[in-house]
Records
---
Amino acid sequence: MTAAASDPKVYGWCPGALRPMMSGDGLVVRIRAPLGRLSPDQARAVADLSSRFGNGLLDVSARANLQMRGVAAEDHGALIAALTALGLVDRDAGAEARRNVLLAPFWTSGDDSHRIASALSAALVAASDLPLPGKFGFAVDAGPAPVLQEIAADIRIERGAEGGLSLRADGAEVALPVSADAAVKEALALARWFLDQGGAPEGRGRMQRLIARRGAPDSHGATVAKGAPPPLPGLTNEGQLVALEFGQIPAQSFAALAGFGPLRLTPWRMLLVEGARDIAALPGLILDATDPRLQVTACTGAPGCLQAHSATRDLARDLAPHLPPNTRLHVSGCAKGCAHPGPCALTLTATGPDHFDLIRNGPADARPALTSLSAAQLRAAPDLLTKAP
Ligand code: SF4
């Protein structure tokens, strides 16, 4: 089957700092902060760089990376030099791509999560003989209960049902019990098993697809713990969780947050501000756990993304107050569905300028229930989203 001209382009890799991606508004530069944490000085400096070289906004990605947009190609070298001086850039693009470790943000220094993520990051940087696909990633989720099970990752080190640690291939319903000391070695062995089993023909592939095809490794048989639901903005033992509208924050607000403490990036489009308890309203922040904007997801859309057929975020913001409780809406600029891969209760997928298809309980490229809705139609009658057909 050949791709239609309107099909979204699939790159098979994610932008990094050293390997940025060109978009409609300039380069997208993604910073993989070590252990997903920025000191206050690093955060203030990154905010300043975003204003100098980017569009003055910072995005937190679904894998807890920090993203700058709108960087001119001729400024990339100066930006990388500044980020390198801050300790936020790997030695080369290969190391940056391999060090794809998502750490659950509720860690304390020296606990299992912190120790394993530190050792795993170092081991992946050193593993230059491990040709993993560009999107292949690891999750370290060793707190009292797993919190990252809904977040994309190919290999998971997580708390098991019996209270010990487990290593799990994504998509598998059984795991391998591991000690904290052996977790990194076993995780790398599982990555090599993935390659040996033909998980990445032509350099592309994900663990879930391999497991669906051939099942979990024979040595895996331990019960998997049930994960906790995603957190909401509010206080945690480690500090205050603040949500970002569409995962984006003005650089000035980012710098102001750094005044409260170090910032931990999370995969829920939130920041955990270490030690903070009383952060007040700042532009771009959502502090109230009942704010309807927490029910909507929207990608960059037009004009920022070259593949977008329509703008997305204003429409998502306007529809948010009309959603039934606990119902999520995803507004996608094209069928690729970057902001919410996988099914969503309601998805509006742009198919042309100001033309949206409505998909219920499916991903952005699923068969629509209604087609060719305009933004004005949806704003005038938001119950179109939920009423039959
Ligand atoms: S889903 Fe959105 S961000 Fe992703 S390619 Fe399509 S328009 Fe661009």
---
Amino acid sequence: MKLFYSPNACSLGIHVLLEEIGKPFELVKVDLASGAQYKEPFISLNPKSKVPALALEDGSVITEWPAVAWYLAKTNPEAHLLPTTLEGEVKALELLDYMVATVHMRGFTRIFRPANFTPTTADEPAVQRTGREVVEAGFKQLAQSLGAKAYLLGDLSIADAALFYLTHWGVQRAKMTLPPALASHLERMRARPAVQRALASEGLS
Ligand SMILES: N[C@@H](CCC(=O)N[C@@H](CS)C(=O)NCC(=O)O)C(=O)O
């Protein structure tokens, strides 16, 4: 199994899940800064030009963060990364969709890549401000979902790996102050050996 990743990208959350599972995997770096995602050989692997992409032994490739995480949880049930009830699975899907489609794609992407949202350079600061508002509203919502629990669904799940990459970005890349519940969640995740291994191997610790 190969994870196509870029250091400090959202693929970090999938990298954490692979470390939590603890089975052998290979990391293949895609240098987003130099545009490697738009060139061969990566473009043939994922024509959408995004990481994470997970290449399986049979040659198939899984893309989209929630789909990759779901696949890993379902194929490694002994790691207990998804609830077993329908209600729990639906809650996990609801959280993943909100975190990736809204907080990441509509919020952080505006902050990190404002030029994707306007043809006018002068408008970029306004785009970034909107991005920060989306992320702040998202963090408020997610702090409520977390409440006083240690992890979003009670026990560690794929949803916490998504929340980890978002809160890590919030602090490290966007220099934001997290709501207290999310700051505690980030510290709890950072204390996990799997997270420490993923950060170290991406050169982030
Ligand atoms: N919807 C995708 C989004 C993935 C994504 O935005 N990946 C970013 C890195 S965090 C990327 O590869 N960007 C490269 C580019 O857009 O050029 C998912 O859920 O996996």
